[in-house]
Amino acid sequence: xxxxxxxxxxxxxxxxxxxxxxxxxxxxxxxxxxxxxxxxxxxxxxxxxxxxxxxxxxxxxxxxxxxxxxxxxxxxxxxxxxxxxxxxxxxxxxxxxxxxxxxxxxxxxxxxxxxxxxxxxxxxxxxxxxxxxxxxxxxxxxxxxxxxxxxxxxxxxxxxxxxxxxxxxxxxxxxxxxxxxxxxxxxxxxxxxxxxxxxxxxx
Length: 203
What we know:
This protein is an all-alpha fold. It has helices at residues 5-13, 17-31, 33-74, 80-95, 104-127, 133-153, 160-171, 175-194. The longest helix is centred in the N-terminal third of the chain and has 42 residues, at 33-74.
C-alpha cells in the first residue's frame, strides 16, 4: 500500500517510540552514507571474487544444470515438489560442496529421512478423515517438521530433504519417485566426490 506524502512527512517527524524506531530503520537502510559505501565495497568484492574464480562459477553451475536436466528426463514433471527439492540439492552439492549439508551423510541420509517421513504422512492420510483440508495440511506440516527433527538429531541435516518429505506426503507412495530420489542423491554425491578437487564453495 502506498503511503500518501503528507502521511509520510508526519511519520518522519513523529516522536512516538515505535515511530522513532521506524525513522532509525529508514535512516540506516535508505539514507546512511556509510551503508552505501559498505554496499559499494561489497559489490567490488563480489566482482573481484568472480574475476578470480569465474571458471568455478561457470563449471559448477553447468554441473548443476546438467544434473537437473537428467532429473527432468527421468522423473515425471508432475512431481514438481520432489523435482524442486532435488534442484535445491543440486545447489547445495555443486555451489557449496564443502559444507556439511553437501556431504553424502546429509544428502543421502537426509533424503532417506524425507522419504520415510513423507510416506508416514501419506499413510496417516489414509487412516484419517479424507478430503478435509485442515487435517491434510496438518499432516503435511507434521511430515516436514518430523523430517527436520530427525535430521537434526541424527546429524543428517540437508534442508532440501524437507521438501522431499512434503512432496511424498502430498503425492503418496510412488516407487519411481522413491527410486529417483535415492538415485539422484547417490549420483550427486558420487559426482561431488569424483570432482572434489575441482570444486570450491561459491558463497
